[in-house]
Structures are given as C-alpha cells and as structure tokens.
Fold this protein.
Amino acid sequence: MTSNSKHLQTRLVRSDYVAPAGFDAYPTAIHHASTVLFKDVASMRAADWKRKDAYTYGLHGTPTTFTLEARLAAIEGGDYCLLAPSGLAAIAMVDLALLKSGDDVLLPDNVYNPNRDLGRWLESDFGVTARFYDPLVGAGIADLIRPNTRLVWTEAPGSVSMEVPDLRAICAAAHARGVLVALDNTWAAGLALRGFDVGADIVMQALTKYQSGGSDLLMGAVITRDKALNDRIAAAHMRLGMGVGADDAYLVLRGLETMKLRFDAHDAAARKVAAWLEGRPEIARVLHPAFAGCPGHAIWKRDFSGAAGLFSVIFDARYTEAQTDRFVDALTLFGIGYSWGGTHSLAVPYRMQGTRRGWTDAGTLVRFNIGLEHPDDLVADIERAFAAM
Ligand SMILES: *Cc1c(COP(=O)(O)O)cnc(C)c1O
C-alpha cells in the first residue's frame, strides 16, 4: 500500500519523504524529542539510558544536548557534563545526589542565596545538617569538617559580596578527610578559572549567565572528571527528570562561540567602571576581585586569569538607603533586575546588614552587571545618578 492510498489524516502524521543526506552546516542541529525511535524491539530492550553513545529518550539526551554537554566539559577541562533546567536546579541535583539523611554539608556564608535556602530546607525537612563557613576560611575548613560531612560548597567569588576563597586550600583540606568539593564557577564561566585546576571535584555553572549571553534562557551544568561521581549525579538527574529544551540548548551552543570575546569585553569594561568608582567620594569600597580592596584579591591574582563583568560597591555610610535607592532609580543605562551575564547593564541594591556573619559595612551595597554598552556612557550615567542622590 503506497502512502497515497492512506487516509489524509494518516498522511499528515506519517510522510514517506526523507530529506537528502549530505547536508552540512556549522550550527548544531536542534533535535526536538520526547520519544526516540528504536529500529526494532531488540534494540529497544538493549538500550541503556546511562549510555552517551546512543539514544533512549529525550530526557536522557539528544544529539543537541550531548553536543552541548561535550563542549561545556571541554571548556572546564572535565570529562562529564549534565544539563539542568536552571543553575539552581543544577545545585539541587548535586545536593540530592550526594546528601542523605544524617549527612552534613558546608556552605560559604556568602553563597548564592537560593543555595543557602536549599541548605536550610535540607536541614529542616530532610535530616541533613547545613552549616555555613567564612568564605575566607581557607585551610581552616579542616576544623569544621565532621565525620558525617559529605560535601563542601564553594563559590568563587561570592556573587554579591565578592570575596575570593582559597579554593586550593579548601580542596586540599576537604580531600584529606575524603570530603567532596563542589564549586559554583558561574562568575569565571570556566574561562577566568577552571575549577578542576584548583582541586574541585564538581564544577557547577549557571549557563543562564555568560554561556547564554542574551538574558533569554535558564540552564545549568554540572561537570565532573570522575566517572563514579558523574554516575551518582546522573542517577539524580534521571530520577529528578532534569530535562532542558532543545531550543535553549541550541541558544547556549550559539552563545559559546562568542563567549570568550564577550567575557573579555565585559571584563575590560567592568574594570574601567570600577576604577572610576574607586576614585569617587560617594563610594566607600569597590568589591571587585581584580582590585586590591576586595577580600581575597591575592587569591584572585594567584588563581584567576581574568574577571567577569559583575562586581559590587559599598556607598559611603553618609548616604541613606533612600538616597542609594534614588541613585539606582536614576540610572538610565542600568536595568534593575536579577541575574547577569547579558549584554545589558544592571544594578541591584542588596541589604547586607544582619544577613552575613561579620558584615560590618554600614553603607548600602549595590551590585553592577556591566554589559556591552560603551563604558564611558556607563560612567556618565552613574555620574548623573550620583548627582540625583
Ligand atoms: C544565577 C546564579 C545561579 C543560578 O542560576 P539560575 O539559572 O538563575 O538558576 C547560581 N549561582 C550563581 C553564582 C549565580 O549567579
């Protein structure tokens, strides 16, 4: 029976047309799929969702997502990569893979706030203890490790208060006690720092930031070198149903090609703006890892080859919060909003007092994401907004 003899409704669903082979182009093809077809029952029965050299189901991978995983792993110098629907989902996947009731996890005081909240939730509802440490603790982390400590989270630098931790010292102390270290490497994006070079076992990135570069999607990645460790996280990935959309995966693949150029441009522009801010009487401190006044600056110099476009300033304490709010509202080239890594500059005030152990600054903290506008225009905009305070 030729397809022409079938009903229209069937022909709309099933076509005999096959596009000619031999098509070649640079972009990775976008494969949309929930169902992946097997050629016969025997190959369906032989399929194993864990394998990356074949396909079983859209959730477990397509040529598009496998390609993105391989490219992200290569950037970090890792061997395995798992994609999650957001950076936070990637963090949660690591915790749920590695922590169980009775275990202990250490997180830095300056950790990405939803990661702190996740730690508290694991503690209140899941029988895990989550303890918070000074991000500048360095080798002193050894004193905090307990027999049931399974995981140490690190973030370099803290994405609001910008302290740069001594990852080498933390990793060495944790490894001496058989404890795994996970690094949130979103700021350095695997470009200014490769997590495995400083000893991390697990590198997490929010691809939402520089990898996308367009402020237009959410995605996260977990990269490892150890197969057994990857397999544990992959089991959580499967059990939690951590799928990502094919179109979003494509957008990240597209972004990766220009990521280094964008990152370097963000870096150069942010340092210009930060240097200008450092000379201003309105500003008490500039918290940028490449500047001497940033806690952990010496570590940044030792371990990092560059800086991202994200940094913070602390206003002189003579300005009230109402005034610094007026400053942020008066900016015209900076949007007010969370996330960062896109081409548009952003400014967000944070209330730090009382949220962190040992936070002594009285002035308002404002975090800047420096986009790809010309830095002279950004400086002029900030200068105008200072006047409006
Ligand atoms: C944005 C961010 C995340 C979370 O990424 P989402 O994709 O927004 O969930 C995690 N860590 C850091 C440091 C971030 O800046």
User: Anything to note?
Assistant: Residues 41-253 form a domain with the Aspartate Aminotransferase; domain 2 fold (CATH 3.40.640.10). The chain has a mean pLDDT of 96. The chain has two domains: 41-253, 259-388. The radius of gyration is 23 Å.
